[in-house]
Amino acid sequence: MRVSAKADYAVRAAAELAAAAGQRPLKRDQISDAQKIPNKFLETIMLEMKHAGIVKSTRGAVGGYALARPAQDISVADVIRAVDGPLANVRGERVETVEYEGAATSLRDLWVAVRASLRGVLESTSLQDVVEGDLPLLVRELTADPEAWISLNRRRRAPAQIPEGAAE
Predict the structure, then answer these.
(1) 65-75: burial string, b at 16+ Cβ within 10 Å, e else
(2) pTM of the predicted structure, to 2 decimals
């Protein structure tokens, strides 16, 4: 999965709002400065999250943005879908609608499984979990595996290890 800059910025902005819950609304500049998000890009992101019912805005001198619902009721998946659409797609199509023939027939099932895996992590993680640093057990288990931290492309490109004592 590739996390777009837009999705990354949206989750970070929503986390800032979650951290400020119960206080006065945050100005876009405050969010931008806190998370180093380009202000103009953030404007678009906030509008998309507002249309999705994730944030609300208040006008005026004491106005700004706040979460539209409690942080524990907003998943990271909700935020990503608000700005990027479906969590997983193939060539812009929903994974359950793609069809393959011949040797690739089972690929649709693989893509559906990938989507289900993404959902398992992203839908079970709320903005409150992110802000509190108390991620769900599934996320903690996955990140506890040292292999999870290694990009397979980096592993494949690494030079072969020569056993000690082996002749070169």
Answers:
(1) bbbbeebeebb
(2) 0.85
* Alpha-carbon dihedral sign for residues 115, 125, 18, 67: positive
**Which CATH number does the domain 5-149 belong to among 3.40.50.1970, 3.30.429.10, 3.40.50.300, 1.10.10.10?**
1.10.10.10
What are the φ and ψ backbone dihedral angles of 34, each rounded to 5 degrees? Answer: -65, -35
Per-residue model confidence as pLDDT tens digits over 65-104: 999 999 999 999 999 999 999 998 898 888 899 999 999 9
Task: Give dist(CA 137, CA 129) in Å, integer.
Answer: 11
User: pLDDT band at 156, cuts 50/70/90?
Assistant: low
